[in-house]
Amino acid sequence: MAGKVWEQGDQLGGWFRKKSINFVNKCLFFNRKTSGDTLELVEESLDINLLNNTVRLKFQNCIVLPGGVHVSEIQNHVIILILTNQTVHRLLLPHPSRMYRSELVIESQMQSVFTDIGKVDFRDPCNSQLIPAVPGLSSNSTTSAAWLSNDGEALFALPSASGGIFVLKLPPYDIPGTVSVVELKQSSVMQRLLIGWMPTAIRGDQGLSDRPFALAVHCVEHDAFIFALCQDHKLRMWSYKDQMCLMAADMLEYVPTFKDLRLTAGTGHKLRLAYSPSMGLYIGVYMHAPKQGQFCIFQLVSTENNRYSLDHISSLFTSQETLIDFAITSTDIWAMWHDAENQTVVKYINYEHNAAGQWNSVFMHSLPEEEIILRDDQDPREMYLQNLFTPGRFIKAALCKALQIFCRGTERNLDLSWSDLKKEVTLAVESELQGSVTEYEFSQEEFRNLQQEFWCKFYACCLQYQEALSHPLALHLNPHTNMVCLLKKGYLSFLVPSSLVDHLYLLPDENLLAEDEAAISDDVDVARDVMCLIKCLRLIGESITVDMSAVMEMSCYNLQSPEKAAEQILEDLITIDVPQTIVELFFQEVARKHIISHLFSQPKAPLSQTGLNWPEMITAEAYPPSHPGAQKFTFLICSLTSCLCKFANMQESLRT
């Protein structure tokens, strides 16, 4: 699977290839960043490192419009359509499958599709045109859309001040021609049916404007349906082929209390589409209200005489304050908000089979630790480098930006491999350290403190950039696989499903208490036992100290057995734990050993010969990703749950 991902100011979007047979480009995507008149495109692969994979385009005296970048692929080319407030552009790039036809290509030879972009003539009139001056066509539109027709025409949609849609067309890339403009008017419905809608200026009323503020396009065989969410809270659909408005639906009919919304323009609403080959087209509308937002999901239904209507599937309410972005599939809604503390919250929900309206939380990857605690026997440089370059902790861009600041503008080549970047960071910090030394004699402790001070300063700088680049800006969903990506300011994160135990363990306390036991197991007793297990695991987690965590982390980092580290942690926990009741003392000294022996159906075997001990069971749960032994996780959970339940029953019997 390959694709493209892009960012436009604070708005992001994406594109994925339907399939990729060539082994070289099976996991490609593109990242795009825009700032004012600048568009940056980056091609990346999940399998290999690509050369010459970044290009920055600057459109002088122009601004790339929201929604104005679209990517399509044809047999021999990848085509990128770009719409600015004054121009339209079409970039023809070689298709990745045409670049590498041999499976003997080595990674060092992997060139990006942008390698020869310098040869592209951006002033070629076949692929670049000025937007003609047309009455009603605004140069500062807040929305737009672009698509490629089956005939190879590049099409761009912009809202009309009269409530219609302007469509700009470039002929196919191999046919000379100029850009043409057609306006899709609402009055075309009236001409066909003698009833319908006219632009506000013609009606002469003082109601809300029917100007579109959100556009989306769905391509069919030889046509394109253009959906527009308008300021008067209506969703309209045009056929580009027939140049007709085929449908208009009032979204306020699906809002329980809409009197206040009727008087205000719906500029805070959002529109999304999702297509399923088997189920058809789904339309998601977010209705923004001051106190409570609402998601409405519809399915497009074709009626007679080339007319269309909406089948209302679901309405879901949310009290989250600021919706940043959302995406839909044929079954789910994925949404991203900023809460009252300006923290990013991502949740999802199945809109067809969730009568309770309960959203599922997405557990976000946390930032690295703000402070690194060093023991007296640890070298500051070694420990800070280990934390900075542990895979998945810091991105390369954050380290490079911090290095630039730390070196105070010194010219350095920052297009480096990870190993070379590590050498550059070490050299920079050590140089700053040596440059600050004014005395020739230091005690070992004084030098160590000074060394820690400089490494701490550089680490804080890295942490600051990591936090800035980790700020989520939008969601992107692969329509072919339903894989969800979180688009951040500096990189892309993939959301992966979590296991049931991970999900329960990471839930906030209030959500854990409200968790539906039926979703855990059909057996009520098993569900309650699992909940009991999760609570016990949380208690264990609360008892783990920083030093204990460091022991496990170092053991995994050095590829040592995590079971040994867990056994040491358990011994430390038992040492510092003082039994408060006779039951706890009995369990610690006697019952635990007999229960474990019984689990293996070896009641007469010596405890030293049993196949599993308590530390191993705790380790398998606390650190499941760290060792292949996690495959036995299901059995261990059942075993540990049985122990805990027996122990709980013993306590209850003694109390009564």
Automatic annotation (TrEMBL):
<dbReference type="Pfam" id="PF23345">
    <property type="entry name" value="NUP160_helical"/>
</dbReference>
<dbReference type="InterPro" id="IPR056547">
    <property type="entry name" value="NUP160_helical"/>
</dbReference>
<dbReference type="GO" id="GO:0005643">
    <property type="term" value="C:nuclear pore"/>
</dbReference>
<dbReference type="InterPro" id="IPR021717">
    <property type="entry name" value="Nucleoporin_Nup160"/>
</dbReference>
<feature type="domain" description="Nucleoporin Nup120/160 beta-propeller">
    <location>
        <begin position="34"/>
        <end position="501"/>
    </location>
</feature>
<feature type="domain" description="NUP160 helical">
    <location>
        <begin position="523"/>
        <end position="582"/>
    </location>
</feature>
<dbReference type="Pfam" id="PF11715">
    <property type="entry name" value="Beta-prop_Nup120_160"/>
</dbReference>
<dbReference type="InterPro" id="IPR059141">
    <property type="entry name" value="Beta-prop_Nup120_160"/>
</dbReference>
<keyword id="KW-0813">Transport</keyword>
<protein>
    <submittedName>
        <fullName>Nucleoporin 160</fullName>
    </submittedName>
</protein>
<keyword id="KW-0539">Nucleus</keyword>
<dbReference type="GO" id="GO:0017056">
    <property type="term" value="F:structural constituent of nuclear pore"/>
</dbReference>
